[in-house]
Specification:
By secondary structure, the chain is mainly alpha-helical. It has 17 helices and ten strands. Strand 6 and strand 7 form a beta hairpin.
């Protein structure tokens, strides 16, 4: 069975809503003081933050970039057998999300709620004299890293990419470094340049403080450490056009992570076993357990195929499947299932292709080593080191039984396509499309009223939910909403 660990639910965190960033009544403040008065209480809070991140990232947020970019189509409804847009993403899938009732309202609010939880701990940190020195450093390090990471997650969905303006002076996000009180604090959005600067400051502060200490039980890849933080930071740097940082960090991870790429022979087998993460995992949030020992949330909820009457909503699009040549061993990464499908009132059997990546009680994958090779390939390409870029790109291609390429193509098209093939269902496609300044082109299987979207567009990002804009007089809504 996959190694898992149980998170303790925080009493006080359940009382905090991001609708008002943080608003704690005096009687509830006593509970917070009591929670923070002991090592056990602090560790419960810290554990709860990881639990909330896993729940958030294994939710419909996991499918956002792939479904918007065109990697995903929908399986037939279990009752009607019709293929329809799931109601919970209907507006966003159509590139017509509504700020009054955004499909991703909970994602925005829950992300800031996690940040507020972090800030509560950081602001009270001086009082934690019951922690040993190494414990204190490690806890503080992870909190800073989580704060930077969560702001990054918000930024890529709610702010235009770093290169949208030549000097990144366009709107970024609210960067919250302290707890805020409704009706008193009205933070404004930073520009994108400052947003990334603040993300860097938090992550780099965390990296400086990190120790070799692991504070909670469970697999080490489920918590931020020196290696996986460097890997995530490399991803952030790539998305922010910070090519040199991305290249340097990716090289550090590749050379020192202590893991190697899955082999051609074992690649599919490692995904199929579903009992442990693939060998090249750098960070995965373990699927948490309910009180009865069952898994309480898992990424497999989105993608699972259990039987012809029990399956998830999201399967591979024909556009994605067409990306794989017949000799690409990743063609074996799909479960082909014939499902009863209603077409024009007639039921027939149609094939659908479920990814093997997240079956069983899968944990929530955050990053693995293959991505670091592709990060370094792109960073090298964009800084003129074409041969180095080709070496990393061909490492991934050769592992997939594809021939090496001798050119990266126009606008580094070969890197873009390899990222799409290798990292499918891992939450990258839309952000890659934006970074490469490409258009969304959802051809086969698209059932939206707007399938294609030309770059640049207001609708590559989501609207700030009205729960935030109505409360905060200084909040600026994204253009077009």
């Amino acid at each position: 069975m996959r190694k898992q660990f149980t998170f303790t639910t925080l009493l006080f965190l359940a009382l905090i809503s991001c609708d008002d960033f943080l608003e704690v009544a005096p009687d509830l403040q006593i509970s917070i003081d009591e929670q923070m008065a002991t090592k056990e209480g602090v560790f419960e809070a810290y554990s709860g933050i990881y639990r909330d991140i896993e729940v958030l990232l294994s939710s419909k947020a996991a499918i956002y970039a792939d479904v918007q970019g065109g990697n995903i189509r929908f399986s037939p409804n279990g009752t009607t057998k019709q293929i329809t847009i799931p109601s919970r993403i209907e507006n966003s899938y159509n590139f017509n999300d509504q700020f009054e009732a955004s499909d991703y309202k909970d994602y925005y609010e829950d992300s800031y709620d996690i940040i507020n939880q972090v800030n509560i701990l950081l602001q009270r940190f001086a009082a934690f004299d019951f922690l040993a020195a190494e414990e204190a450093k490690q806890l503080q390090a992870e909190l800073f890293i989580i704060r930077g990471f969560m702001h990054y997650q918000i930024a890529i969905q709610y702010a235009q990419n770093y290169h949208f303006t030549t000097d990144a002076s366009h709107l970024g996000i609210v960067y919250n470094t302290s707890t805020l009180t409704a009706g008193i604090d009205f933070p404004s959005r930073e520009n994108m340049r400052n947003t990334y600067r603040l993300i860097k400051e938090d992550v780099e502060t965390g990296i400086r403080l990190l120790t070799a200490t692991q504070l909670l039980s469970g697999p080490d890849y489920s918590y931020f450490n020196k290696i996986n933080t460097a890997a995530i930071y490399a991803r952030m740097a790539l998305q922010m056009n910070d090519w040199e940082t991305a290249k340097s960090l990716a090289t550090t991870v590749i050379n020192t992570a202590g893991v190697v790429l899955s082999t051609s022979t074992n690649y599919v087998l490692e995904w199929e076993r579903n009992l442990l993460p693939v060998n090249e995992i750098l960070m995965e949030f373990s699927a948490p357990l309910a009180s009865d020992g069952s898994v309480s949330s898992s990424l497999s909820e989105q993608y699972a195929y259990n039987s012809s009457i029990n399956y998830g909503n999201y399967v591979a699009s024909s556009d994605l499947l067409a990306m794989y040549s017949s000799n690409d061993m990743r063609t074996n990464m799909f479960i082909e299932a014939n499902l009863t499908t209603s077409i024009n009132g007639l039921e027939t059997q149609k094939p659908f292709y479920f990814t093997k990546k997240f079956q069983g009680d899968a944990g929530t994958l955050l990053i693995r080593l293959s991505e670091l090779y592709l990060i370094r390939a792109e960073a090298n390409a964009r800084t003129g080191f074409i041969n180095d870029a080709l070496n990393d790109l061909n490492t991934i291609r050769n592992r997939a039984n594809l021939e090496a390429v001798s050119s990266l193509g126009s606008n580094f098209e070969e890197i873009f396509k390899e990222r799409r093939r290798e990292l499918a269902f891992e939450g990258h496609l839309l952000f890659d499309i934006i970074r490469f300044k490409k258009n969304v082109s959802r051809r086969n299987d698209c059932i939206a009223f707007l399938c294609d979207l030309e770059y640049p567009s207001n609708y590559f990002i989501l609207p700030i939910p009205s729960s935030s804009t109505n409360l905060n007089q200084n909040m600026t809504q994204n253009a077009g909403y």
